[in-house]
Design goal:
The complex is a heterodimer of chains A (about 500) and B (about 140). Helix content of chain A is about 50%, strand content about 20%. Chain A is of the alpha+beta class and about 500 residues long. In chain B, about 45% of the residues lie in helices and about 20% in strands. Chain B contains five helices and seven strands. The interface of A and B includes residues 78, 110, 114 and 134 of A.
């Protein structure tokens, strides 16, 4: 039963592949890969969530800006229509009554806007004040462009913001030239009135409401409680117009306060005015930032938990692995011990009969194949029984151990010394052809065993009878070799012991 | 220590007297009015357009004086604790968003007296000097 270590190239590839898969399911690799996948999932989903959130906040803010602009536009248009309506009412009444009577009449019938905020005045074409309701704080109206423009227009005109001791006002003028005399109806409203719908709940502290004239300047602009007028709008209307989507407002940087806002710019249909509505991007994203921070906190927590549980799992797995490895090692060691015991003589520690039989079988097979010859020496101790009887079994055992040692020392490492049982030993010399060399080995053994043995204080002398047989000359198989060696050994005993005898055909024919 | 206390008391007394001296504007109604008393909160709500009907079921119409009259500032400052500018901002917002109209304004104390006598459901304010027959001063509980 010789195992041939043949190497088949075809079988190595699947084996390597198998080994790679095996390494993939190795606990350290598996745990590491799972950790990486887990971390990847946690962080990519966090980044994705925060991006989605930011985008949706931006979209909502842009949509909200257009919603606010819709409402604001409606409010401004209605306020302007009321002003226009009042002006036309006064103009109509002026065709029937003198100015003061018109004002008194309309005031009495509650047809004029509340004087708390608004003023209504009738002026001559030269700017002379003829009648007024409420405070008309404009000493020389005729010097203003809106007044002059009104003279040549059928439409209502709007003034620049005009500072009075009551604050900034906007004036509106309408020429009344259809009656007997020519007048100009002038109305005023606080500029702040047109941005009074500013609500911090929707517009925030950085929002923008504004009314812009046809000169591209703010008539009034409000951010929280801050009011101002006169600022140039710059290229914001054209940039807003370039934006295609009507449902969302474009994000534009406002140069006057360096704030980015989702901005709606809308020209009013009937009036030479434009409304501007803005929602600060930074302010609206701030609310989302808290949530985003929470997301990242959650991701860090989840990663930490993952790493903790993975390291715990790793430790458990490593411990399990080492326990299993230890168990396997012990089993292997145990198997080795059993094997050793099965093939070795427990007394002398030399290979036993079973081991020797195997060795001999192998030697015969190899000898046949490679045309080699080898020698088998069969040894039997002379006088062992005497030692055993006179000095005891322990001394006998001791003698066998010492003989074993001397035999091993007398031969080369490649030679095999085995104890077959009792006082029988064999020596296999695998690579010896020359008979002289075998004799010298035999004599070396004789000399080694001839020296006295010290057995618990007693000097004992023994000798050895050695029978030699050669493969393939004296035997072609194990049984024949053992038999011929045994015969040769008996011959040595007959020759007076303590000598070496080779087997010969003659001896074979003499044997029973 | 006692000195300080006395001085503090004296200061407090002076302040009260000054306030009383300034409070020459009173809230008044027609003698025919069923309104006998109003709380400061009710008065505030009436003048800010938040209350048009009293709990008793009577409709109430506030009357205002035009801003140039001295009584306007005194009334709002003393009874409502608000400046004229704050009142303007309040009505500005309500008118602009279409949620209300300010009280009708009369030219001065004398006009107020006339308007109150004409309208039994009206509430108004005027300087004590302008009080005359047909008007009743309303106590304002704080």
């Amino acid at each position: 039963m010789v195992r041939h270590p043949t190497k088949a190239p075809a079988s190595t590839r699947p084996k390597a592949h198998h080994r790679r898969i095996h390494r993939l399911v190795d606990p350290p690799f598996l745990i590491g890969a799972l950790t990486l996948v887990g971390l990847l999932v946690i962080w990519s989903s966090t980044v994705h969530l925060t991006q989605t959130l930011s985008q949706s906040v931006a979209r909502n803010t842009a949509t909200m800006a257009t919603d606010i602009a819709d409402t604001y536009e409606a409010l401004v248009v209605r306020a302007l229509r009321e002003i226009g309506h009042t002006a036309k009412l006064v103009r109509y009444e002026l065709t029937r009554q003198p100015p003061q009577a018109v004002i008194d009449d309309l005031s009495e019938h509650d047809l004029l806007p509340p004087s708390l905020l608004f003023s209504v005045a009738v002026l001559g074409l030269d700017g002379k004040l003829l009648a007024t309701h409420g405070r008309h704080d404009l000493p020389s109206a005729e010097e203003n462009a809106f007044f002059q423009r009104a003279l040549y227009s059928s439409q209502i005109t709007v003034s620049q913001p005009i500072e009075t001791d009551q604050g900034t006002f906007l004036y509106f003028a309408l020429a009344a030239t259809q009656g007997r005399d020519d007048y100009v109806v002038v109305l005023s409203a606080p500029a702040s009135y047109f941005v009074s719908s500013y609500d911090t709940a929707t517009l925030g502290a950085q929002g923008l409401l504004g009314l812009v004239g046809d000169d591209n300047r703010f008539r009034i602009r409000r951010t929280a409680e801050h009011l101002s007028s006169g600022t140039l709008l710059g290229d914001i209307p054209s940039r807003a117009a370039a934006h295609q989507d009507d449902s969302t407002a474009p994000l534009l940087a406002h140069p006057w306060d360096q704030t980015e806002r989702y901005t709606v710019v809308r020209e009013l249909y009937d009036f030479p005015l434009t409304i501007v509505v803005g929602l600060s991007k930074a302010e609206h994203l701030a609310s989302a930032r808290e949530t985003i921070r929470n997301y990242y906190g959650g991701a860090i927590l989840a990663s930490t938990l993952l790493l903790i549980s993975v390291s715990f799992l790793g430790r458990m797995s490593w411990r399990l692995h080492s326990i299993r490895k230890q168990a396997i090692d012990e089993r292997i060691q145990h198997a080795r011990n059993i094997e050793y015991l099965a093939f070795h003589d427990s007394l002398t520690d030399l290979p036993n009969r079973a081991f020797f039989n195997r060795t001999l079988t192998r030697a015969v097979l190899e000898g046949r194949r490679y045309q080699r010859q080898f020698a088998l020496l069969f040894l039997d101790l002379d006088g062992f029984k005497h030692v055993n009887d006179s000095l005891g079994h322990d001394a006998g055992d001791d003698l066998l151990i010492k003989v074993g040692r001397r035999l091993t020392q007398s031969v080369r490492d490649s030679d095999v010394v085995a104890r077959l049982g009792g006082d029988e030993f064999v020596v296999l010399l695998p690579t010896i052809g020359d008979a002289d060399k075998i004799v010298s080995v035999g004599e070396k053994i004789l000399a080694a065993c001839a020296r006295p043995f010290n057995l618990s204080g007693n000097n004992a002398r023994i000798s050895v009878s050695i029978g030699v047989t050669l493969f393939p000359k004296h035997g072609q198989d194990e049984q024949t070799l053992l038999k011929t060696a045994d015969i040769a050994m008996y011959h040595a005993k007959q020759q007076g012991k303590n000598n070496v005898q080779f087997y010969s055909e003659v001896l074979g024919s003499e044997a029973p | 220590m006692r000195h300080v206390l006395i001085r503090l008391l004296a200061t407090a007394l002076c302040c009260t007297l000054v306030t009383l001296a300034q409070a020459e504007v009173v809230v008044a109604v027609s003698e025919q009015s069923s309104i006998k008393t109003l709380s400061r909160l009710q008065l505030t709500d009436i003048y800010l357009g938040r209350l048009t009907q009293l709990p008793s079921g009577y409709a109430v119409t506030p009357l205002d004086q035009a801003e140039p009259s001295g009584s306007h500032h005194q009334f709002y400052q003393h009874y409502l604790g608000r400046t004229a500018a704050e009142i303007r901002a309040h009505w500005s917002r309500l008118i602009f968003t279409g949620r209300g109209q300010p009280p009708k304004a009369v030219a001065g104390d004398a006009a107020m007296a006339d308007a109150l006598i004409d309208n039994p459901s009206a509430v108004g304010y005027l300087n004590t000097e302008a009080l005359r027959e047909g008007l009743r001063v309303i106590d304002i509980d704080s």
